[in-house]
Amino acid sequence: MKSVARIAILYALFAAVATAANLGAQAMVIWLYSGIHAIELSILVGTLTGLPIKYVLEKRHIFEFRSDGLAHDGRLFFLYSFMGIFTTLLFWLIEYMFHWMFGTDAMRYLGGAIGLTIGYVIKYRLDKRFVFVARAPGTMGCSG
Questions:
Q1: How would you label 87-120 residue by residue, b for 16+ Cβ within 10 Å and e otherwise?
Q2: CB contact at 8 A, 108 and 99
Q3: What Cα–Cα distance (Å) separates residue 72 from each residue in 24, 35, 36, 128?
Q4: How confident is the model at residue 85 (pLDDT cuts 50, 70, 90)?
Q5: Do the beta carbons of residue 139 and residue 125 sit within 8 Å?
């Protein structure tokens, strides 16, 4: 079993790698296309780039989980992504609250950092409890 500190360091490292891939993909989209809905398109492409990277790294190195095949891995990825919706909304809410309460970029970024930290802790716990779990044979859901 891995220590809490090792998991936290790896989790933060993988978040940084996925974030860099996300932002790099967003920058590439904006560089290639500046038309209508360019921002929305860049966010979508960034998410579609960073999310699978983070999923694979966490599945292998944080949770040390092996799927039962492509279909099982697809269900895991869907569930992993779904768990991220709640934590992303929480992050956005906290960042926006800091922006609304204090009205400065610095405080908005502080709120964003706090929101991301809280979101990542919750996301890790959700993934550990509901996504990367071994199920008894014959039970519904993802088996591991």
A1: beebbeebbeebbeeeeeeebbeebbeebbeebb
A2: yes
A3: 30, 38, 37, 16
A4: very high
A5: no
Whether the CB-CB separation of 124 and 61 falls below 8 Å is answered with: no
Helix (H, G, I), strand (E, B) or coil at 61: helix
C-alpha to C-alpha distance for 41 and 99, rounded to whole angstroms = 25
Kindly report the CA angle at 12 between 143 and 65, in degrees rounded to 5? Answer: 15
Q: Which CA distances in Å does 77 have to 1, 26, 42?
A: 23, 22, 21
Instruction: Report the alpha-carbon distance of residue 121 to residue 116 in Å, rounded.
Output: 9
The predicted-structure confidence for 9-66, as pLDDT tens digits, reads as follows: 999 999 999 989 988 998 999 999 999 999 889 889 998 999 999 999 999 999 999 9
pTM: predicted TM-score of the whole model, two decimal places: 0.80
